[in-house]
Write a structure and sequence with these properties.
alpha+beta; globular; 27% helix; OB fold (Dihydrolipoamide Acetyltransferase, E2P); single chain
């Protein structure tokens, strides 16, 4: 997308703290109506990028363009910030009622009392906190306080909404409920949003596009399917949950399928490569199918390995199963599959997966 067609565009931005580089992004755009999820480990530069995009911090070099315009003076930056809204990890609520907190930015913008009420009440309703409107905001639970922060942001009708890990401090049930509600609100309002998170499930649930930051640099960006299904390299793959990364070497090419020798066995992988290339075969745990050992069923899966269960561990509503097939593979299966296959340490089992479920991953440090 051209810079002048984007709501926000980064152009050659660099930030350093005490001489140490923390952000170096040559180009990045945020499109109208989309949610851009920015993910990365702690210290990757995610919050710094958000502050730069939100015009809360000036980069050492480069510029941020808002609808094609790079603001220069503080007055210009302030005027643009008033067209944005931010929600942070810790709710910033003053010592007043919930409704007064939600209406506060509108009061700062000179909106009259009657219009403030008309704009605030619907968002209290939509975020499920209307019954709390007259309560002191300081007495809210963490989830309620964050709902008030979101209501306050949406009530300003921002052109861009910035969310900086807003659910990180919440317990899982509260977080899951808020993520679900926010997903509905973003789909309905189509508010252009930059959402920073270290939680890949939140990025998958909310992001129309995903940007991966590693050591302050943009390692990959694209649709969730592209980033999570075909990570650019080993480091990105591990970050987005590709637990199975099997080292091997390309030994043959046939009919659009790459054959990779891994631990003395050949695996079929969809993709492109050259014979002799070193490669990692990446397969997500949820793309592995566990079956009873013995003659294989007629399926479209081109890869089948037999092995022994090394470990079974509950993971919320599902189970993580590690299978030793000469190489170790980790699968995620349902409780029903654990029972029907008798999955326990030492049990024999077969692991199968399609060539299209696997992908070639560039090893870390390679070009």
């Amino acid at each position: 997308m051209a810079e002048d067609a984007a709501v926000l565009a980064v152009r050659d931005v660099r930030v350093r703290y005490a001489g140490r580089p923390v952000l170096d992004v040559p180009a990045l755009t945020v499109r109208a109506g989309e949610t851009l999820a920015v993910i990365g480990p702690n210290g990757a530069g995610k919050s710094t990028l958000l502050r730069v995009l939100a015009l809360l911090e000036r980069p050492e070099r480069g510029a941020v363009l808002f609808r094609g315009i790079a603001p220069g003076s503080e007055a210009e930056r302030l005027a643009l910030r008033r067209r944005m809204a931010s929600v942070f990890q810790e709710p910033l609520l003053c010592d007043a009622s919930v409704v007064a907190n939600v209406a506060l930015p509108l009061a700062f913008r000179g909106v009259g009392r009657r219009e403030r009420q008309a704009r605030v009440r619907p968002w209290l309703e939509r975020l499920g906190i209307a019954p709390l409107a007259d309560r002191p905001a300081r007495g809210l639970s963490g989830g309620e306080a964050q709902r008030a922060s979101l209501a306050r942001a949406f009530a300003t009708d921002p052109e861009v909404l910035f969310l900086d890990e807003p659910f990180a401090a919440l317990d899982p049930p509260t977080r899951d409920a808020l993520v679900e509600d926010l997903a509905g609100l973003l789909a309905e309002a189509r508010t252009t949003t930059v959402f920073v998170t270290h939680d890949r499930s939140e990025a998958l649930r909310l992001g129309d596009r995903v940007a991966v930051l590693l050591d302050g640099r943009l390692a990959q960006s694209g649709s969730p399917a592209e980033v999570f299904g075909a990570p650019a390299d080993e480091t990105v793959a591990r970050l987005v949950g590709v637990e199975n990364l099997l080292p091997g070497r390309v030994v043959a090419l046939r009919d659009g399928v790459v054959e990779v020798e891994v631990g003395g066995r050949r695996l079929a992988v969809a993709g492109a490569a050259r014979v002799g290339d070193a490669a990692l075969v990446g397969v997500r745990p949820e793309d592995l199918l566990l079956e009873a050992p013995g003659p294989p069923r007629r399926t479209s899966a081109q890869n089948r390995l037999e092995g022994v269960v090394a470990r079974v561990a509950p993971l919320g509503p599902v189970y993580r199963v590690v299978v030793d097939c000469g190489v170790r593979l980790t699968a995620v299966v349902t409780r029903a599959a654990v029972g029907s296959l008798g999955l326990a340490a030492g049990a024999a089992v077969a692991v199968s997966f399609k060539a299209t479920a696997a992908h070639l991953v560039r090893p870390a440090g390679s070009r």
